[in-house]
Amino acid sequence: MTGHLTALRAIILREALRFVHQRERFVAALVRPLVWLLVFAAGFRAALGVSIIPPYQTYITYETYIVPGLCGMIMLFNGMQSSLSLVYDRETGSMKLLLTSPLPRWWLLFSKLVGSTAISILQVYAFLAIAGAFGITPPWKGYLTLFPALVVVGLMLGALGLVLSSFIKQLENFAGVMNFVIFPMFFLSSALYPLWKMAESSELLYTICALNPFTHAVELLRFALYGQFNAAALGWTLLATVVFTCGAIYGYDPARGLKGRKG
Amino acid sequence: MSGLSVSGLSYAYGGNQALEDVSFSVAPGHFCALLGPNGAGKSTLFALLTRLLTSRHGRIEIAGHDLSRHPRRALARLGIVFQQTTLDLDLTVRQNLTYFAALHGIAGRDARRRVDAALDRLDMLPRAGEKARHLNGGHKRRTEIARALLHDPQVLLLDEPTVGLDAAARHAITGHVHDLAADGISVLWATHLTDEIRPEDQLVVLHRSRVLAVGTAGDIAAGQGMAERFLAMTGDGGTNGTALQRAGGSVA
């Protein structure tokens, strides 16, 4: 077991080092949600009123509503970023190094997942600190209760990233992931608007949003940020995590093969 | 047996047969060159030997451990140098080796001792603090070979390790790895460059998914230059192979 933990620590450290070496990535990861929070939300506030819905106990501003969604957005982009780096690792060959280690493959993939989740969580708290500086603050204990929810959501989106990385054959195909995974997941969720608003405009879109695991991830974060527990959201998020993890284990099964197709 | 043993190994990508009934073995202390033109199946064979691919047809044993039944035990005894550089260019030589040691569950003082010993063996200790990005091609390769030796493997696989290197670096690395074989490791060295093979080396010639010849390089060359012999064997579709295969036998 010591060997397992040694590898886990080394993989997390490597992810952290890689992140430190890519300062632009950190800045981009923060700027994206801040633009939403400080620019888009200001514009949308007038158009979208948010009534009292759980977990909120009063009328809230639109900025307050989208903060959990933007935390989810950070994690979604980060999950995809780590997926991108896995595809890159595979193209450059360093993935082979990981996969030929004598430790169990699932453990190595899990270590990768923990590493990318840890980085996501750091980014979310950095974002919340800046949002706090602009006066958007949840109850203080929300910062603590948010943590376990971030772990679960980070693992789910990291596992999704792993699945995608095992099926994407080339780096160039990654633009497709942006168009067909990240944007639909984000916009067809409760990150930017409550689902009842969506139901008013289209029943079909509402159903899609309700089935989207990212919606449940955002709701889990939203409730946790206000010190409340949303069992249904947790259940759906965990279920999605299990499904994605199974997909990743299948995707990285050596019987399917991960190498380039050449003799 | 210890060392490396491959028997009856076949693999197909969908309908394309990439390897067909490949068998050979490399005993401890032997340097075995795997010679084949591009597309012969060398990369597929390496992917199977390193378990990046698995096949239901055939058997691979590394240091006596069946790779499909006991993959972890087998991989723990295998050192690998891939064709592409797999160093993290932003890390130093020492950090690269320490990371790899951790992937094998080796940490702390033991890892430091092994890293120093492996770098020293390849004359890379003075460059331990340099970033991999700043190394020349030959030094990158030596770093990778040092890394592959960290966990004291009994079998060392190298997939065209001299690609892109100048003549001096090629000569030095070929010499280093021959020395490693002399120290008792089973070495399988894939190449398509005949000048890297010494007459006393063991040789497996792979052509069009099949083993064309197995034996000592000098015997297979049969008095001709290695390059001419290799071209003659692979240039006409490999029909010369039958007699050679009989002449060779196992690389043990």
What attributes does this structure have?
heterodimer; A: 263 residues; 11 helices; B: 252 residues; Rossmann fold; 2 domains; six-stranded mixed sheet; four-stranded antiparallel sheet; 9 helices; 10 strands; 36% helix
Summary of the model, kept short:
Chain A: It comes from Pseudooceanicola atlanticus. Chain A has 263 residues and is mostly helical. Chain A contains 11 helices and no strands.
Order of helices and strands of chain B: EEEHEEHEHHHEHEEEHHH
Radius of gyration of chain A: 19 Å
Q: Largest sheet of chain A, described in full?
A: none
The amount of beta strand of chain A, in percent, is under 5%
Strand order of the largest sheet of chain B: 6-7-8-3-9-10
Rounded Rg of chain B = 18 Å
Low-confidence region ranges of chain A = 259-263
Derived from helix and strand composition plus strand pairing, the structural class of chain A reads mainly alpha
The share of residues in helices of chain A is over 70%
Number of helices of chain B: 9
Oligomer: heterodimer
Low-confidence stretches of chain B are 237-252
- Averaged pLDDT of chain A: 85
Q: Name the beta content range of chain B.
A: 15-25%
Any overview of this molecule?
The complex is a heterodimer of chains A (263) and B (252). Chain A has 263 residues and is mostly helical. Chain A has one domain. Chain A is built from eleven helices and no strands. Chain A has helices at 2-21, 23-47, 62-92, 94-99, 105-133, 140-167, 174-187, 195-201, 203-211, 213-225, 231-251. The two termini of chain A are 38 Å apart. Mean pLDDT of chain A is 85; it is low at 259-263. With 252 residues, chain B is an alpha/beta fold. Chain B has two domains: 4-77 and 153-248, P-loop containing nucleotide triphosphate hydrolases (Rossmann fold, 3-Layer(aba) Sandwich); 87-152, no CATH class. Chain B is 36% helix and 25% strand. Chain B contains nine helices and ten strands. Chain B has helices at 42-49, 71-76, 93-103, 108-121, 137-149, 167-182, 217-221, 226-235, 241-248; strands spanning 4-13, 16-26, 31-35, 57-62, 65-66, 78-81, 155-159, 186-191, 202-207, 210-216. In chain B, the strands form two sheets. A six-stranded mixed sheet of chain B has the order 6-7-8-3-9-10, sandwiched between helices.
